[in-house]
Design brief:
Blueprint lengths: L3 H5 L12 H7 L3 E5 L4 E3 L8 E6 L2 E6 L5 E7 L4 E2 L1 H5 L8 E4 L3 E6 L1 H4 L4 H5 L1 H27 L3 H10 L9 E2 L4 H8 L3 H13 L3 E4 L2 E4 L2
Helix pairs in contact: 6-7, 8-9
Length: about 220
Amino acid sequence: MKNLDKISNSKLFAGIDLEHLPHMLSCAGAEQKDFKSGETALFAGEKPSRIGVILTGYVHILRECPDGSNVLIKVLAQGEILAYALNCLSVTESPNTIVAKTATTILFFDFSRILGICPIACAHKQRLVENMLSYTASKNIELQNRLEIVSLKSVRKKILVYLSTLPKDDDNYITAPLNRQEMADFLCVERSALSHELSKMKKDNLIDYTKNHFLLKT
């Protein structure tokens, strides 16, 4: 199977011996699928039958509003896990749409089959469960952070707190995974208000930025 190094480095399979992965994934019916930028990996209303691990690229999780527009729920990048909660809860219709935002490769498989298929898988069952619990806990913390951000009344505070949660590059810059419209949707503000506030923050020497590359000066 391709991309075994990326699979073994993913959050779900961390700590699992590389030599055992091919057999485990084969028994679980694992399949790698490539998506073009803008292509949909899962439609809202579709039954999520498999868990996915993003091997390359990143995706957007979207929720459709009553007026037909889409709201950005979250961004998932390489190593992240897709549809794990929907599968664990046996949800029959996905409430969200998953769209590839770049050329993306996703590994799909049946997680329940991995946990009870054979002695090789069983030897690593505890680690898989621990990895999934750890991942779920980290996602809960991210959700709490998101709720805290959107509950802030000041657009400036929303921007500062959001940027502070993103990892920094070697040059201390932050590369936001969202364009202006996506960032506005994520922060629950109007795009014009976001752009206006970013410009003011730059003039106030709080931040510097070029497109989606930001430098916090506070």
